[in-house]
Amino acid sequence: MPSAAFRTNMMKVPMFEALFDIFSYGFLLRGLIVGLMVSICAALLGVTLVLKRFAMIGDGLGHVGFGTLAVATAFGWAPLAVSLPVTLLAAFFLLRLSEGGRIKGDAAIALVSASSLAIGIFVVSATTGMNTEVDSFLFGSILTLTNLDVVMSVSLCLVVLVLFILFYNRIFAMTFDENFAKATGMPTGLYNTVLAALVAITIVVGMRMMGALLISSLIIFPALSVMQLGKSYLTVTIWSAVIAVLSFLLGYSLALIFGTPAGASVVIINLATFILLYLTRRVLHKS
User: Fold this and answer.
1) In this predicted model, what pLDDT tens digit does every residue of 191-225 receive, in sequence order?
2) pTM of the predicted protein model
3) What is the DSSP string of 161-178?
4) Which of 6, 194, 245, 285 sits between 20 and 30 A of 46, alpha carbons compared?
5) Treating both helix axes as pointing N-terminal to C-terminal, what angle do 26-51 and 147-166 enclose, rounded to 10 degrees?
């Protein structure tokens, strides 16, 4: 969270000028870049996850990410290097559990989510104890982002965007009728695995900014908001990304001006957007 002196200076300028002042502070610019990239990736993936009724995978993987980041911090390992492969494995594990039939998607997510969170808290409490770095993994912090984090985050987000565009038609087919796609010979298992990997990467990258408790909101809210009015899959996908970017910019600006946590501010704006579009749909249906 920005210092009191910084917040005082930011409150002296109009809201729309606050974004221009970001370029004067390196840590704020890093947060802006990572936040925008993660918002776009999460929104694009969120449409498919919501339609497949698997939206809460973001929450589960966020807890897995926190657990691995906490353990890595406790033992002095590189957090991102440890968290990324473990979260990828967790995404594949959740997928296989759901496909197996004995444990359905929501139960599998709850199982992995609670276990990972408990392991992370237990290891940290038994070693270094809860500290500022661990808290930043749980609640998010723009102050923890380094130049190396930005380079790695942007690179990973570009991988997500490129793969999503390349496999867009396959993802579209699986979203609406996976059984039919499988019947036509499409390797749906492979593409589900790719989707799970993209979600895992997005979660790990965005968690440093949003925190493990709030990262899933970037996946859920934009898609649900646009679905109140949008009809086609492509329209909803595009406008989800647009709303995600605008919500992040507004929430980020409010966080800088009023000194509120960036992650919580972005979620509040996303919530307000959802409520506005939901009420708009209700009014249009009554008229």
Assistant:
1) 888 888 888 889 888 887 788 888 889 999 999 99
2) 0.85
3) HHHHHHTHHHHHHHHH-H
4) 285
5) 30
